[in-house]
Amino acid sequence: MSALLLEISGLVKDHQALRPLRLRELRVTPGRVMSLGGLDAAAAEMFVHLVTGGALPDEGDVMLFGTNTRHIPDAGAWLRSLDGLGLVSHRAVLVGMLSVLQNVAMPLTLDLDPIDPAVRPAAEALAREAGIPEAVWDRPLGQVDALLNLRVRVARAVAANPRLVIVEHPSAGLPRGEVAQVARDVARVIAARGSALVTLTADPDWAAGTGGERFALAPATGELRPADGILKRLTRVFGGSA
Question: Which of 93, 69, 107, 193 is nearest to 141 (CA)?
Fold first, then answer.
């Protein structure tokens, strides 16, 4: 079995944007931490669909945990192929009328009102680890700010101890002064599990907070280039952006 968690090669996917999404090569090994810039919201969404097998490349291959997404035969195999993957995305379904802790507990149980006593300690531990104050656990999720909303998404993404976590444009809507700290918190939670972390972001503050390698995608060629210098220049000239 391949030691690679994610391998993308020769990828081309038309997604009705100015140009197709291209990615010449990406290899993610256990524990690797990296940030990828150069993908706008539409390209980042398509990247996630391609990794999860929700969409197939026009050219090239995507291998997740050793399985080529082209070769998944049915819905059951598709669900099994996602074991070990955690996603932090604004598109993940949360329920605003449920409490913060109920939303954290959703990957653990369907018994949410009240939360199954057998899994409540695990949900509380996840909430604490993600930096969610106990004072807001019983508050409806629809009444909390973007920062706490993100922390809920992180807690849910790591609930099953994934081997790979993909974080999609996480700093959109966050207060600028909070970005670096929450990025460090997210990286800590993921590193505690030995998981690899791939963040799709153009925010230099977030990329610096999570640490690891930083790359920028050249859209015309699909080449990933080291982005430290680019991000430093963006920080000096424009400040951080999601």
Answer: 93
Contact predicate 159/130, CB 8 Å: no
Structural domain including 57 reads 1-84+164-242
**Please, which residues bridge with residue 37 across strands?**
216
Where does the pLDDT of residue 196 fall: very low under 50, low under 70, confident under 90, or very high at 90 and above?
very high
Q: Where is 135: in which H helix or E strand?
A: none
Residues 6+ apart with CB under 8 A from 45: 91, 168
Q: Which pTM was predicted?
A: 0.90
- pLDDT of 232 > 80? The answer is no
Report the C-alpha gap between 50 and 46 in whole angstroms.
6
In degrees to the nearest 10, what's the CA dihedral of 74, 78, 81, 86? Answer: 180
The answer, yes or no, to whether residue 240 has pLDDT greater than 80, is: no
- How many Å is the Cα radius of gyration of the chain? 18
Strand partners, 214: 35
Residue 241 has pLDDT above 50, yes or no: no
| CATH number of domain containing 19 | 3.40.50.300
Distance separating alpha carbons of residues 102 and 124, to the nearest angstrom = 10
